[in-house]
Design a protein that fits this description.
two-stranded antiparallel ribbon, 12 strands, Pseudouridine synthase, globular, alpha+beta, disordered N terminus, Alpha-Beta Plaits
């Protein structure tokens, strides 16, 4: 992340008073850093927290989520720990707007006040938010690009898996494009642009066209599961309209695989 931003830099203002929402977020993060340092760890706000703060202002925070962490709580106390909870502990008022699957890494945005949270949620509902992902899949895609339009539903007999269901499934559409073809073994790096946001959508859609993702412990065959220590799926781009300024904001994160 480079050098740690000061209160003014991290919030995008010259000075931040302690009573502002921005200052509350900043001081909460600093307290977390001091606790970590006192325990002998590096002075970093993301040590052991599972995310990096990419952008913070008085109204929202954009983070880069690590893989292997739930976005929201699951069922049972053992699944209570999640990104939504951790960010809310570090940044006062943080509320999650959208989700990434547990094993997917990459960009997420959270609102820091009710008004911003509501406005961002409406953008996701209206599908005015642009999202792009990068993935490594097995085999070589025959075409350069394509669109997958297949409805998804919960696989009740095999949770948490999803399945293609033409009768009861929800509409699900993914655009894909080849970025690179790799050999020994054959793999393809692809850009994925979902028009909808269903659980496991990208993983299952690529599987159905014969290209499961490397490291996918739900859908990949054993030979592809062994090729990567994690699911090779990363949210690389997030573009939305800032609710307070009306300006389009674009954030990018390179795939770590």
């Amino acid at each position: 992340m480079g050098a740690l931003a000061t209160g003014g830099e991290i919030c995008g203002v010259a000075q931040a008073g302690r009573n502002s929402a921005c200052a509350a977020a900043m001081y909460g993060m600093m307290e977390r850093m001091e606790e970590t340092a006192n325990e002998g760890g590096p002075r970093s706000p993301i040590v052991g927290r599972g995310y990096a703060a990419v952008h913070v202002d008085a109204h929202l925070i954009v983070i880069d989520k690590q893989h292997g962490i739930l976005s929201v709580p699951g069922i049972g106390e053992e699944k209570a720990d999640c990104i939504a909870r951790r960010v809310a502990e570090d940044f006062t008022g943080a509320r999650i707007v959208h989700r990434l699957d547990r094993d997917t890494s990459g960009l997420m945005v959270l609102g820091l006040d009710p008004s911003t949270h509501r406005a961002l949620s409406m953008q996701f509902e209206a599908r005015s938010v642009r999202k792009e992902y990068e993935a490594l899949v097995g085999g070589h895609c025959a075409e350069e690009r394509g669109t997958i339009d297949l409805p998804l539903a919960k696989d009740v007999a095999n949770p948490p898996r999803q399945r293609i269901d033409h009768e009861q499934g929800r509409p699900s559409i993914t655009d894909w494009q080849v970025l690179e073809r790799l050999s020994h073994p054959a793999r393809t790096r692809v850009r994925l642009s979902p028009r909808t946001g269903r659980s496991h959508q990208l993983r299952l859609h690529m599987l159905t066209i014969g290209h499961p993702m490397l490291g996918d412990d739900l859908y990949a065959p054993s030979e592809l599961l062994r090729l990567a220590p994690r699911l090779c799926l990363h949210a690389t781009l997030l573009e939305f309209t800032h609710p307070m300024t009306g300006q389009r904001q674009v954030f990018q994160s390179p795939a770590p695989f």
